[in-house]
Structure formats: C-alpha cells, structure tokens
Specification:
This protein has three helices and 15 strands. With 195 residues, the protein is mainly β. It is globular. The chain binds D-sorbitol-6-phosphate and zinc ion. Zinc ion binds next to loops. The site of zinc ion (ZN) has 5 residues, from loops.
C-alpha cells in the first residue's frame, strides 16, 4: 500500500500552508527591479526587507501525465502605489497551462503572452482561473487581507523567471484614488515624473 502523503494533503486556506510540505519565502529583496517606482522601493526596503509571499509546493509524482501543485500566500501591501505582487513567470516548458483556485482574499492575475498582449482577471475565493500555456502570469493582492490561492500544473512546467526579469509586464496594478487600477507601465511611470 502506498503512503497517503502526498496523495492526500490537508491545507489551511487561512495561512496558505500544506501540512508536511516545505514553504519558500519571497521578500522585497527578491523583487528588486520589479516594482515600477524605484524610489518607493528603496524607501520601503530601507525600512524593512518585508515578506511579500510564501509558496508551498507538493510534488507527488514525476513523469508523463503527473501533476504538481502549490499554495501561494501573498500579503497585502504596496510599494508606493503598486500593490504587492509575485515575480511572475512563463513556464519553462511553454505549452504548460495551469489552473488557479482562489481560497482567500482578493486580487488580480496579470497575463502577458509572448507577443506582448496583456489582459487580467480577478481572483477571489471559490473562483478558478485558467492560465493558458505560452503566457506569463503574475498575481497581485489588491485587498486588505492575504490573498491565498492554489495552483495546479504539469510536473514539468518549470519556471522561466529571466524573461520577466528582463522585460517585466507591460501593465501595473496601482492604487488610483483608493481603487486598484490596471495601467500601462509607461503611463504610470509618467505620473511619477510629473511635478
Ligand atoms: C507555479 C505557480 C505558482 C507561483 C507562485 C509564486 O507555476 O504559478 O505557484 O510559482 O504564485 O509566483 P512566482 O512568479 O514567484 O513563481
Ligand atoms: Zn505558473
């Protein structure tokens, strides 16, 4: 008889943890260069290398047809006017799709394909979002509490962080008069230089 773990897992949607599975942490210092407002980033970092999110992954099997999954726990907060977000990535194996299920909080998923077309969807508890292959994805917490979601993906999806690190997403999610707003990065950057 096979062991129940990791075939059976118990997870906590409040803390974004999975019993017995390791978590990795991403802090402000891991996202140097990702936030649009560099002055605000430096000011925040000088205060504290704050925790932005944790990711807890389970890899039950390898090989054709196998699935991996993980819970992300993204804290509320902003760097300047831009909401806390994940690094964002393409899958290293480009055709790999993914399915996200919202468990707690409120946020947006930003998408960008290889031709540079961008769009976004909400992510909230009891909602699911299909992330197509060949599409970079980043999650943004636009609410006052942690955003927690489950992601399920082919075992060999992998992560390509380098492409996003170089070119970033062309859109940002920023606070405009108290409202989370999706804007072109270039337009947001212009607002920062206006006196
Ligand atoms: C993995 C999946 C998520 C992210 C996590 C953190 O394919 O999309 O588990 O890894 O939300 O985001 P990132 O961009 O730092 O990996
Ligand atoms: Zn992914």
């Amino acid at each position: 008889m096979q062991a129940l773990f990791p075939q059976f897992t118990q997870f906590d949607p409040l803390t974004g943890t999975i019993e017995g599975a390791p978590s990795l942490e991403r802090h402000l210092s891991d996202l140097r260069g990702y936030f649009a407002d560099q002055t605000a980033y430096q000011a925040a970092f000088t205060q504290e290398d704050a925790l932005l999110y944790t990711v807890t992954n389970v890899e039950p099997a390898q090989g054709d047809g196998a699935l991996h999954y993980g819970i992300s726990y993204l804290l509320p907060g902003r760097v300047g006017r831009e909401y806390y977000m994940t690094k964002g990535h393409f899958h290293a194996w480009r055709p790999a799709a993914e399915y996200y299920i919202g468990l707690r909080g409120a946020g947006l998923l930003l998408f960008e394909d290889e031709q540079g077309h961008s769009w976004s969807t909400p992510i909230t508890p009891n909602s699911g979002v299909y992330v197509p292959g060949h599409t970079a994805h980043r999650t943004v917490n636009t609410g006052p509490e942690p955003l927690v979601f489950l992601g399920i993906y082919p075992f060999n999806a992998g992560h390509d962080y380098g492409t996003i690190q170089e070119r970033n997403f062309s859109q940002v999610v920023v606070d405009v008069n108290g409202q989370p707003t999706v804007m072109e990065r270039s337009a947001f950057l212009r607002t920062l230089t206006q006196i």
